[in-house]
UniProtKB/TrEMBL annotation:
Keyword Transmembrane helix: yes
Keywords for the protein's UniProt record, in alphabetical order: Membrane, Transmembrane, Transmembrane helix
Listed transmembrane segments: 21-40, 97-118, 172-190, 196-229, 241-262, 274-294, 306-325, 331-351, 358-378, 406-425, 437-459
Lineage, uppermost ranks: Bacteria, Pseudomonadati, Pseudomonadota, Betaproteobacteria, Burkholderiales
Protein name: 4-amino-4-deoxy-L-arabinose transferase-like glycosyltransferase
């Protein structure tokens, strides 16, 4: 017997967000951050370096590495996707842009699977709104579409998705695979064929992306759900059990064959730092998710009947536990966002008008202030007025010369105008659509991200890429230095040298004299062993990173025998 639902929704409140607006919003969000920038430091540059090495046949597909350097991030699938993109697309395209194409598709897939998962959950009997005495309650399909739109808006609004969702690393592959598993578990009743495909590919992709343990746990929990679920609509239960079991064993077997199982003791946690991270990473969706758990608390007493709550709550719990056991807090926390967005969507039919108004005003003030700050800093850097922001940028980024680019400026103006139109629409008395409370948070997050990736992109590239430091390095070495040896540099640094220069970069594990020039970042180790190598190498210059003087490369020249 199903318990009474707290959702009271009329048919007039479940009108869908226009598809053109939804597609435009998602497309702008996906493209911003992938287009127009250089590969950024560390994880982004490391992934690109390995993708390029795989595409050029310079390393093994099963054990990719550059020289003696092995990758620091888990998984293989992210490297394969970028390498396949380089090999399949025209050779005259810039490969740093080409490798981002599969990841644009993955981010779009994550948004699509989240929409489909919530659409399936909202059609379940326990999720339906209260039936009115004289009719007029929301139709199940329209109600499901409205909640699915709200879930996508909640996911777009999450601050933690902005940067990590636009990097060519294993985190985005894991996010898309988790969303696929979420979609499969939520649509066994409604889209059996598509759910079957997602049920197999999701865990396998999650395992190949470096999270086989999480993939096996999610598949195992879905098998338990199939065994314990109390719903008359679930047909072919034993076929589903066999299919999910096959996906589980394929994932575990592939991970074992490719040596992707890695066990490590749980790291020590700074709980205060973790609390701050949890607070802002999934903001503003997590308060709505908690509101859902409170308003639907009676239904939580029947988890095997109220699958629209137990499925996203179980996914949230498992991914949050994975974050606590993993050393990569941000990457693991990213996987909690689809479940949080789904739970936030189920808060929409139960929100009070006063709470919705509070969300609107807080969002309006926060994102308007952020947008004005971005514009003022850009204006100061371009014109010198006001003077203080430009002085701060000059102090933090030595040698930066701000360019003016007409196309990004026009896109930023269009995004700001769209924000003003959205605010004007929301401040009117639009009380019908239940997703209206998430329109401003999603629009504000997209606005801030677009402004950062247009107006501030040259500054971010200057601070976050290796190009400025390598430009300084090129003024130290001869125009054609030939062979350049590296010692103590990370894979990302070696890859950046190979990408931004035509030098023959030779990464080694010891500074034995192989080339005429040597670049090292291990200053402490070099000073400790300077006496042993003083007869072989002559220090020439310390090359500083313009935005961080503690990041230095020491350039040495081999002494003539």
């Amino acid at each position: 017997m199903l318990l009474p639902t707290p959702a009271i929704v009329a048919q007039s409140a479940v009108r869908r967000l226009p598809r053109s607006i939804m597609l435009l919003l998602c497309s702008v969000y996906v493209l911003a951050g992938f287009i127009g920038r250089s590969p950024w430091r560390e994880a982004d540059m490391q992934a690109f370096s390995l993708m390029r090495a795989l595409a050029l046949g310079q390393t093994s597909w099963l054990h990719p590495q550059i020289g003696p350097l092995s990758p620091t991030e888990p998984g293989l699938l992210q490297y394969w996707l970028g390498a396949w993109a380089i090999q399949l697309l025209p050779a005259d395209w810039s490969s740093d842009w080409v490798v981002r194409l599969p990841f644009m598709a993955l981010l779009a897939l994550a948004l699509t699977c989240t929409w489909g998962a919530v659409h399936g959950l909202a059609r379940m009997p326990g999720a339906q709104p209260v039936s009115f005495a004289f009719g007029g309650e929301a139709h199940p399909r329209d109600y499901a579409c409205a909640l699915a739109d709200g879930a996508v808006l909640a996911l777009l609004a999450c601050l933690g998705l902005t940067q990590m969702g636009h990097e060519t690393t294993h985190t985005l592959v894991q996010l898309s695979a988790t969303c696929a598993v979420f979609y499969a578990a939520s649509n066994l009743w409604w889209q059996p064929r598509r759910a079957a495909v997602a049920a197999f590919l999701g865990p396998v992709a999650l395992g190949l992306a470096g999270a086989p343990a999480l993939a096996v746990v999610l598949a195992g929990l879905t098998i338990a759900l199939l065994c314990l679920a109390r719903t008359p609509r679930l047909t072919h239960r034993y076929s589903w059990l066999a299919w999910w079991t096959l996906a589980l064993f394929c994932t575990a077997g592939l991970a074992a064959a490719l040596q992707l199982w890695h066990w490590a003791p749980p790291p020590q946690r700074d709980w205060a730092s973790m609390a701050r991270l949890l607070t802002w990473f999934s903001w503003p969706a997590w308060p709505l998710a908690l509101w859902t758990l409170w308003r639907w608390r009676r239904q939580l007493a029947q988890p095997w009947r109220q699958l629209h709550l137990s499925i996203p709550l179980g996914l949230w719990s498992i991914t949050l536990l994975a974050m606590l056991l993993n050393t990569e807090r941000d990457a693991s926390l990213l996987l909690t966002l689809p479940a949080i967005a789904a739970l936030a969507a189920f808060a929409l039919p139960t929100l009070r008008r006063s709470l919705g108004a509070l969300i609107d005003w807080l969002t309006l003030i926060f994102f308007t202030v952020c947008a004005l700050t971005i514009w003022i800093v850009w204006l100061s850097v371009q014109t010198g007025f006001p003077a203080k922001p430009a002085a701060n940028v000059a102090r933090l980024s030595d040698g930066y010369l701000p360019p003016f680019e007409a196309l990004p400026f026009g896109i930023a103006l269009a995004a700001s105008a769209a924000w003003l139109l959205l605010v004007a629409w929301r401040t009117r008395r639009h009380r019908a659509a239940i997703w209206k409370s998430l329109a401003l948070p999603a629009g504000g997050t997209v606005l801030g991200w677009v402004l950062l990736m247009t107006l501030w992109l040259p500054m971010l590239d200057y601070g976050r890429s290796y190009a400025p430091q390598i430009t300084r390095l090129q003024t130290t070495l001869p125009a054609q230095p030939g062979c350049v040896q590296t010692w103590g540099l990370s894979m990302a640094q070696v890859g950046a040298l190979r990408w931004h220069t035509d030098w023959n970069i030779v990464p080694t594990s010891s500074p034995a004299p192989q080339c005429a020039w040597l670049i090292t970042a291990s200053h402490t180790e070099w000073q400790a062993n300077s006496n042993a190598y003083a007869a072989q190498w002559l220090p020439v210059r310390n090359v500083l990173r313009p935005t961080n003087r503690d990041d230095q490369w020491l350039v040495l020249q081999r002494r003539n025998p």
